# Entry
Amino acid sequence: MAQTLPVLSEGEKQCLHLVAQGFNSKEIARQLHVSEHTVDQRVRTSLRKYGVPSRKEAARLFVSAQQLQPQSGTYQPLIYQPEPLATDPDPGSSMAVPDRPDEQTERKTLLRRILAFGPPLGGSTNELSVDGRILAMIRAAVLTGVGVVTLLLLIAGAFKALA
# Structure
């Protein structure tokens, strides 16, 4: 059966492998860092090569062909063995650090978060917690209010200077 199946490109193989796992085109595009159009084109090409009407059927054929092929190596890959953890030469030193930060440190951290200028930049997902989002909205509102008041004062000063 593996001999009768067509040869697929690496991109087509990746897409069919993810289709077999139940992902849709949008999710596959995110994982492979390509556009949805590219994913759909690769799936359509593989449908044409396999001569089947559905992407699920093509994925099923691909997976069954992959299972029938012999593995490339005879040995399993080595498992990474991490270095053993270093021991603390003075076990009593870790007890001196409190588990909770003191109240003054918490206040400084909260003040720093409130006064941070603008929302975090970059990234396609919002990684802020709920309180971080609320603080970002409050900062934006305060900065907008300060900007509007400053602009109005400048305009009023300009009119007084002209009069």
User: Anything to note?
Assistant: The mean pLDDT is 77. The first helix runs from residue 10 to 20. The helical segments are 10-20, 25-32, 36-50, 55-68, 103-115, 130-162. The radius of gyration is 30 Å.
